[in-house]
Amino acid sequence: MFPSARFEPRRAGRQRHLAAWASALSAWAISVLLLHWFYATHLQREEQAAEFAALERAAAMAEAVEQGVLRKLDFVEGLHELLQLRERLDRAGDTAGAAAIEEHLTAVARRARFGVQAIGVIRADGVLHWSTAQAPGAQPVSVAEREYFAVHRDGKRELHVSALTIGRTSAIRWSMHLTRALEDRSGNFAGVALVSLDPIELSKKLGALHAGHGEASVVLRLDDGALLALGAPEERRFLGGALPEEAVLFQLMRAERAGRARVWSHLSGRELLFGYRTVSGAPLAVAYGLDAEQELAPIRALRRSAQASMAIAATLSLMILLLVLWWMPPTRARASLPAGLAERAPG
């Protein structure tokens, strides 16, 4: 017998053994990859569903904020109408009727209903003619240079909401002025009806809607992003400021009536899931945000747990597979020899 006749079957057995190893390891790798893909796809769908649910909740809360602002605006509109009536009575010489309205408005401001700080009338020359915040006998104060007077003097008849200011007559805290033009019997500009609201009171009302830490709510002006009320106590230091023009949330508010989005908050420095709305009939917008990290934390914890479990399962299955392959005996050369050659083989 030639020596090669003895070794060729043995070499073929080793090749078949290596092929078995390669096939088994390939099957293991494919199984692990498929399992990983299945879990990753499932968890991605779960995260998307959780994010969608959180955005829906944020949108519902934004609508609740809008309704609260609208109730306050309705109350202010009633005060503006009373101020218009007071002016007509005053110009008609009905001092008793004008005084009765003044007494009622003074009581409203004293009780701070709906966060009202002050109510007043600015004449067409820019002088504060009457105000609940003025002490009796106080000297008239000109506010002609203030934005909330100038916009109406220049022709605006709709509701105007000012940025936060320090009151000229009280000078004690922030005020938000809601104004509307007064008209004489001919429809000409006759002055401005002024109602000042407390932004801190409004901010606290927003904060009462928060269910936990990490939530945020805001009321701002659409014209320039001026911040009028902030629900989160840690963000109220930004009152009196404004969102920058490049803020994604501000751009979205200007672009559509209502919506929801996952954006970075310039105020909290976190990624928030926002619902936002523009306020009907007012130059305002509101938003309510939920902390994205907190909302998605359960899904991400599940992902980490699943990844750890899959890693352990993959490692154990690989060890078992290697043990099986290691103890699997190689095909003996003689078992694969043709019968005639096996009989003539020595031994």
TrEMBL record:
<protein>
    <submittedName>
        <fullName>Uncharacterized protein</fullName>
    </submittedName>
</protein>
<keyword id="KW-0472">Membrane</keyword>
<feature type="transmembrane region" description="Helical">
    <location>
        <begin position="20"/>
        <end position="39"/>
    </location>
</feature>
<feature type="transmembrane region" description="Helical">
    <location>
        <begin position="308"/>
        <end position="328"/>
    </location>
</feature>
<keyword id="KW-1133">Transmembrane helix</keyword>
<keyword id="KW-0812">Transmembrane</keyword>
